[in-house]
Known about the structure:
The complex is a heterodimer. By secondary structure, chain A is mostly helical. Chain A contains three helices and no strands. Chain A has a domain at about 15-40 and about 45-65. In chain B, α4 packs across α5. Chains A and B meet through α1, α2 and α3 of A and α2, α8, α10 and α11 of B. Chain A: InterPro entries: NDUFAF8 (IPR034595). Chain B: GO terms for molecular function: methyltransferase activity.
Amino acid sequence: MQPPKATTSSTVRPIQRFASAVSKCSAESAAYGKCILADYNSVHKDLCANEFLRLKNCYLLAAKKV
Amino acid sequence: MRLNLAPVCRPQQWKRLLMGSGTARRSYALQSGSLNFEVFNRRAKWLQKERAAAHVREGRQADYLKDEVAMRVCERLLDVKREFPLVLDLGANTCNIARALLRPDPDPESEPPVTDPLATKITELVAAESSHSLLHRDADHPSLSTAHVPNFKLTRHVLEHDELLPFSPDTFDMVLSSMSMHWVNDLPGVLSQINSVLKPDCPFIGAMLGGDTLYELRTSLQLAEQERKGGISPHVSPLADVRDVGGLLQRTGFKMLTVDVEDIVVDYPDMFALMQDLQAMGEGNAVLGREMGPIGRDVLLAGDAIYRALHGNEDGSIPATFRIIHMIGWKESPNQAKPLRRGSGKASLKDLLEQ
């Protein structure tokens, strides 16, 4: 099996696009983080679903603009 | 071509290795029970290293950690007043140890007449590594030029199996290892092979990641997965603890042990930058039984937010802790210095300290 080929250095990797979109949502990100931090010893599924949806919406909007 | 020959694809070759005359390859049973310690996927690790080597520019940028640790390992050589004709670097990565050895003026505290590069103490360094491309990545790079140390020779050796040392017993005057033993499945086995290939009264000086390395990333991803998916999968390797390492060295026959830890904290702009750098280092997740494929976007999004909230710095960056376990052990020899028998001390430390 061949090892993966190197991508050319000029292409922007998806993770970099993702990171720059996420960086535009610091307020939503902080709100979600705060919600988890308030109760991090008993985190369960969808504990902070509302905060996460707000963060995700913000990210999706930002990702469209990038 | 060499690259196409993944070591795991060739069991018949292994067999030959195992049946060979070199007794160094035998791993000793140190514990009753199973000898198959399988924690990491060796093939995945090999592929990650090959991939890291293919991205030369990113790889060189991300070499800061391995170069730093290699330098700290080699600084310990300043305390050993000896010449080493033949030295093994086990798990050489991109020959980071050789780079550190070739550095001019290695002693930062030395007075202006500069000290010689540490490589002057060594005649031949065998850099052994399982990934051919990673080992040869910097073959022509100026940092590995041996022109200023004419007596030093760097030999590259591609290991067929990274946990089987193809060397005869009592071969090396020293074994070095930096930033690779945390991927070894059978640590007791590899340590006893190292002990075997060393000549009597010769040191093993190593450093690997351990303990609380990347605990910030580990906890953030755990919380993110717990909240988003309702369950967790391993993203950061299980690592040896300082106490384990001391015990292991002792049980594999090393004498005069020194084990110490050092934390290197690196700040990153966000979690993604940390993960990209880890990938460029070839230090991605290779735990067996991990969830295959990339981490989902939701978990990444949540993880970054939690990382900032839980561990973030005030200036908006995030810290990542790398805990380096340094170890030194000497192979036993009848005429080496030994600790005195317990209770045989005549002077009281208490009196000394009170003076």
